[in-house]
UniProtKB/TrEMBL annotation:
Family, per entry: Belongs to the D-isomer specific 2-hydroxyacid dehydrogenase family.
Protein name: Lactate dehydrogenase/dehydrogenase-related protein
One Gene Ontology term, aspect cellular component: cytosol
Lineage: Bacteria, Bacillati, Actinomycetota, Thermoleophilia, Gaiellales
Gene Ontology MF: a single term: glyoxylate reductase (NADPH) activity
Keyword Oxidoreductase: yes
Entry keyword set: NAD, Oxidoreductase
Residues in D-isomer specific 2-hydroxyacid dehydrogenase NAD-binding domain copies: 100-264
Domain D-isomer specific 2-hydroxyacid dehydrogenase catalytic per the UniProt entry, residue ranges: 28-296
SUPFAM superfamilies assigned to the protein according to its UniProt record, in alphabetical order: Formate/glycerate dehydrogenase catalytic domain-like, NAD(P)-binding Rossmann-fold domains
Keyword NAD part of the UniProt annotation: yes
Species of origin: Gaiella occulta
Length: 297
């Protein structure tokens, strides 16, 4: 189809060069959402009713550069007949790998060891020094049986762990009691906000560790910090934070915590693939007049 006027697209943050070039081949990039036909939003942008109103009635599609869409008011988008698309599948492997990385770093005390070496503390090899635990043999409770959860289970199994998948309707409280590692892979919504709170932390074994690569607010971060200080659970590996990019101060001095700055999908290939899915969604709606494969509204 020939388009005499190229659709206008606003991109909320810089994107990889390959994605930028792909966007510029088909669209006119504009500096603000006002007047745009399509928007590429990062998870740091709140796309609520006010944002959509300000963008204007010509807006037809928001392509979120993430699989999680908790930054978008989907009901408001639906009311305004704005298609919302996300970037599933292409980041599944990278995010699951990061969950495994946090598990292994925590169990084998890699973060703690790294900080120890950098402090130039005196040390020599000794048999009882900084002993950790194996992932092999551990019961890994994967909360959320979607793509990333299932891939994390597959990787954990390859390390000799025993993955248990918990989906909607499963008795999370009972499963938490049995787990050595709890890894969170649920989207953030009203039903999952503070899914792991003070009460549920107390159900976990005192030797258990919690891994979160989903969204920070799935965990009550204050309650987690308190639980770690009091020895209610043994450790945590966090990639996401309740008030991102702020991190609860009380977590910082803890040895038994590994922290990374929201790196789940942070490999170059993954980020390019995510961007190309956004381009595809814009193309579908703005150039071909069809619903994109990754539409969530
Ligand atoms: C997502 O896609 O939702 C991740 O959190 C960032 O890539």
């Amino acid at each position: 189809m020939m388009h005499l006027v190229r659709p206008r697209v606003h991109v909320s943050e810089p994107v990889p060069r390959e994605v930028d070039e792909a966007l510029r081949r088909e669209f006119d990039l504009v500096g603000t959402p006002q007047g745009a036909d399509g928007i590429v939003s990062m998870l740091t942008v709140t796309v609520d009713d006010a944002y959509l109103e300000a963008a204007g009635p010509q807006l037809r599609v928001v392509a979120n550069y993430a699989v999680g869409v908790n930054n978008i008011d989907l009901a408001a988008a639906r009311r305004r007949e704005v298609v919302v698309a996300n970037t599933p599948d292409v980041l599944t492997g990278a995010t699951a790998e990061l969950a495994l990385t946090l598990m292994l770093s925590l169990l084998r005390r890699v973060g703690e060891g790294d900080r120890f070496v950098r402090r130039r503390e005196p040390w020599r090899f000794s048999l009882e020094f900084m002993l950790g635990r194996r992932l092999a043999g551990a019961t890994v409770l994967i909360v959320g049986a979607g793509r990333i959860g299932r891939e994390t289970a597959r990787l954990a199994e390859a390390f000799g762990a025993r993955p248990v998948l918990a989906g909607r309707g499963d008795d999370l409280d009972s499963l938490l009691r049995e787990a050595d590692i709890v890894s969170l892979h649920v989207p953030l919504g009203d039903d999952t906000r503070h899914l792991v709170d003070a009460r549920r932390l107390r159900l976990m074994k005192p030797t258990a560790v919690l891994i979160n690569t989903s969204r920070g607010a799935v965990v009550d971060e204050e309650a987690l910090a308190a639980a770690l200080h009091e020895g209610v659970i043994a450790g945590a590996g966090l990639d996401v934070y309740e008030h991102e990019p702020e991190v609860c101060e009380k977590l910082l001095p803890l040895k038994n915590v590994v922290l990374s700055p929201h790196l789940g999908s942070a490999t170059r290939d993954t980020r390019i693939a995510m961007g190309m899915l956004c381009v595809e969604a814009l193309r579908a709606v703005l150039l071909e007049g069809r619903t994109p494969a990754n539409a969530v509204t």
